[in-house]
Design brief:
The chain contains nine helices and 13 strands. By secondary structure, the chain is an alpha/beta fold.
Length: 285
């Protein structure tokens, strides 16, 4: 456990030359000039510390049914690069990340590498693991590729292309700096009024101040995360996110307030929201 199998090892690679990279995407709109906006983006540079302690598992195994596009959303191009590439590049720019594991459908492994990884100058070693029928099984598959030398593991949705290296670094630092913490989750406070509904009728209005919308990345101590997966498998428990596996064992997971524009591309409407966020951040006046 914790060692990459032979197929995964064959997918592992590094590159020596680092070119300037784009920091965030743009989205399709008749009002935006693709080429002009691409030229205005800030570059990212890959980094790799001498003794990195964190591995990241990027979950890119979803079918994309809700997105309504054949082939899913991970390879949808934004400003000339797939959504998955944007996510991976942000982790590549964090020196403490020493391994990136891409979890994707096994029959599309070569396609993912050819379109989202191979054309770009990553400096962080990259491995590929087969996705499973559920998110939890996909995360476990990725975890199997993480060697025991990595003390921390981060989980990230491949369809969250606007995550920044600064947010990643801060979340990792929160876990490292709190010895009694088992992990940290990026989230933002709920801003809408919440209703409890039973059979189509409102049954209550809870205090929204105690509710947060969970995002990724989520960072955990690797040993604890492995034990949480083992316990979930033994008990037949299926959580809605990675943190829930540790929470059920009484683990202490911190929250890191993240920006609301750390959006996940799930349905077509999200495309327009991401477009607006990127244009605001990087569009020329």
């Amino acid at each position: 456990m914790g060692q990459a199998d032979s197929n995964t090892k064959n997918a592992l690679f590094t590159t020596e030359d680092v070119d300037v990279k784009l920091d965030a995407p743009t989205f399709m709109s008749g009002a935006i000039d693709f080429d002009e906006l691409s030229r205005s983006l800030v570059g990212l540079e890959g980094k790799l510390d001498k003794n990195p302690k964190t591995a990241v598992i990027i979950l890119a195994g979803g079918s994309g049914d809700r997105f309504g596009r054949e082939g899913g959303k991970q390879l949808v191009e934004i400003a000339g690069k797939p959504v998955l590439t944007w996510s991976a590049e942000s982790f590549d720019a964090v020196g403490d990340v020493g391994l990136i594991v891409i979890v994707c459908p096994e029959d599309r492994k070569e396609e993912y590498l050819k379109r989202a990884i191979d054309p770009f100058p990553f400096v962080t070693p990259i491995a590929v693991a087969p996705s499973g029928p559920t998110r939890q099984e996909s995360a476990f598959s990725g975890l199997e590729c993480v060697p025991d030398e990595f003390e921390f593991v981060a989980l990230h949705d491949g369809a969250r292309p606007l995550v920044t290296p600064q947010l990643i670094e801060h979340t990792i630092a929160m876990v490292k700096g709190n010895f009694d913490a088992d992990g940290a989750v990026v989230a933002h406070p709920a801003i809408d009024t919440l209703k409890v509904v039973e059979n189509g009728v409102i049954a209550g209005t809870p205090d929204r101040n105690v509710f947060w919308n969970a995002q990724t990345p989520q960072v955990f101590r690797t040993g604890i995360y492995r034990r949480a997966h083992a316990a979930a498998l033994s008990d037949g428990f299926v959580g809605t996110d990675d943190s829930s596996l540790i929470e059920r064992l009484g683990g202490r997971v911190l929250v890191v307030e993240g920006p609301r524009d750390n959006l996940k591309l799930t349905v077509p409407e999200d495309y327009e929201l991401l477009e607006a966020a990127v244009y605001k951040m990087y569009g020329k006046k």
